[in-house]
Write a structure and sequence with these properties.
about 110 residues, mainly alpha, two-stranded parallel sheet, 5 helices, 4 strands, about 40% helix, DNA-binding
DNA sequence: AAGGTGACCGGCC
DNA sequence: TGGCCGGCCACCT
């Protein structure tokens, strides 16, 4: 209440991202779809930018449809995102997730 | 206050 | 086969 209901949109995104199982990944579009705005995938990425304040939001498990760590540059370290994924058993090479389809997890609402 | 931007996606040429 | 374009909506300057 201190802030506003603007979290309405972001909150939904975080909610889905938090549901991503350990060792799994998903795409921005999938999340956008889960919240009911399949074409607002852009906002999902934007919401991730603000997710830095949230600790329960594993933004490193969110990549684009190509399976590329597009947002890796938004992390502190250059390869921080990659290390986090590898730490969970997700192999990443050249900023791209190997066997992306196998690690892909479609969010449900 | 208004315009521009963006961790994207899908479709079209 | 690849590249370009529009759309979507909130945040930032």
């Amino acid at each position: 209440m201190s802030e506003k209901n603007k979290d309405n949109f972001f909150e939904r995104v975080y909610e889905v991202v938090r549901q991503i199982p350990h060792g799994k990944v998903t795409s921005y579009g999938a999340i956008a779809k889960a919240i009911g705005s399949p074409q607002s995938s852009r906002m999902v990425g934007y919401a991730m930018n603000a997710s830095h304040n949230m600790e329960d939001v594993p933004a490193h498990r969110v990549v684009n449809r190509n399976g590329v760590l597009t947002g890796k540059f938004h992390f502190d370290g250059t390869n921080l995102m990659q290390q986090l994924l590898e730490a969970e058993g997700v192999k990443v090479e050249e900023n791209k997730i190997l066997n992306f389809k196998e690690h892909f997890w479609e969010p449900e609402f």
